[in-house]
Amino acid sequence: MNDFLFVFRNDPAVMPGMSPEALQNSMQKWMDWIGGIAAQGKLVDRGNRLANEGNVVRPSQVVTDGPYIETKESVGGFIMVRAGSLDEATEMAKGCPILFAGGNVEVRPIIRM
Amino acid sequence: MENQELIPHLFRTEYRKITAVLSKTFGLEHIEIAQDIASDTFLQASEMWGIKGVPDNPVAWLYTVARNKTLDYLRRDKLFKEKVTGQVVRSSPPGEEIDIDLSARNITDSQLQMMFAICHPSLPVESQIGLALNVLCGFGISEIASAFLTSKETINKRLYRAREKLRTEEVKMEFPAESDIESRLEAVLKTLYLLFNEGFYSAGKDITLRKDVCIEAMWLTKMLTENAGTDSPPVNALLALMCFHASRFEARTNPQGETVLYQDQDESLWDATLICRGENYLNRASVGQQLSRYHLEAAIGYWHTIKADTPEKWEHILQYYNQLLILEYSPIAALNRTYALAKARSKREAICEAEKLNLAGNHLYHSLLGELYLGIDDRKALECFNASLSLAKSRADRLLLAEKIRRIGETC
């Protein structure tokens, strides 16, 4: 078994535009999906959500506001799961609700130092 | 209360108090002596009260006898007196009578400190539960053995090792430091939770005994809620959870002693007073930011006290199970979540999730799967119940499964 990081990316403009009902609905879908992974005993770290705002520090101390300045998608959160292979982890990611809201999941094996 | 009921009743309530106060007096490494004196006191009570009748104030009588026995012991055994490390004995001026402080305040403090000592993280969980049953609940060796479905010898050894461990780890009778209270309290709650479950879920046949274990666990938890230093939201949540579960105690077994499943229970047998108390503790638990597993389990317990079988009810239960699993995995929570999923959404969705659970060695997994396949594919359901039966160990489980299989066989 290995650990994998799921990185969730989405257009940061999508979330704020949602109605309370849609938000509630989306929340429930996320809980069902992560709960399903946890029910298999494969959730290593529930991770966290990231706020939309932020800074990026570039060489020569250049600071730009917002990590998504050059792209329409930004990292919105992450979790860590356990799986037998990259394929299995990828299969798990296919149920992620973000895929039905225009986002994507990046699945990356974690190399323990 | 009749004489023959009075002594066991007092034993339950007073044994732990005397033991706790004396252990504090002597130092915890002499807990056995404290227990012996407490037992002796009750022995004398049962002899004397039988002949002379019950004294006007039985509790005061017990305390006086325990105090005298202790002073006798200290007088007789000078060497012991020099060895003891307990604060009270050590700080008393030489030549003066030692005061055994049996004031209400000291009794409460000593019991709480005993709880923290017994639930010390250096002790294996099994030892903690054994000691809790023996010292805090006043259960005898044979009662503990029958609660754990094991031999008296095993329990004796376990308790012996546990007391050894208290000594070698130099566990003291004291309140944890402010900075440790949260983590130490968490350990206490975990033990009380397991203690309750031992009574509630054990396969032991003695239902009265199992109920007593639950009552004692609740009593100890209640004591934590009555003390400002330990009255935290998770403590109240745990007590709420215990109340909700215990409310179904009468309904979950039929007069033949067989298990009655939740959906088949007669809700008029549910204890409304306990449910009401549970709600009260759950309200008290709902302050602050902390959401412990006890909060989630209490919330699940609360929804189970509502009999109406609506998708809304199961949706709530499902979401609490999701949160519980995210906090901490357990096979039983995984199975219950899948059941809630079937009730809140659909059996097909639940089957899909169940297939991923990887719990093929667990008989409950197969009976859940059987339950889900019922009405969709009865032949498959039958296979699952048979698989469950081949793995089930307890008589109660086997009876339930055999009945299910028989009923499906009739319609298949």
From TrEMBL, chain B:
Sorted keywords for this record are:
DNA-directed RNA polymerase, Transcription
Q: Name one GO cellular component term.
A: DNA-directed RNA polymerase complex
Q: Per the record, a Pfam family?
A: DUF6596
Domain of life, source organism = Bacteria
- Key word Oxidoreductase present in the record? no
Q: Does the keyword Metal-binding apply?
A: no
Enumerate the spans annotated as RNA polymerase sigma-70 region domain.
10-78
Q: Where is the DUF6596 domain?
A: 184-285
What protein name does the entry list? DNA-directed RNA polymerase sigma-70 factor
Q: Give the species.
A: Dyadobacter endophyticus
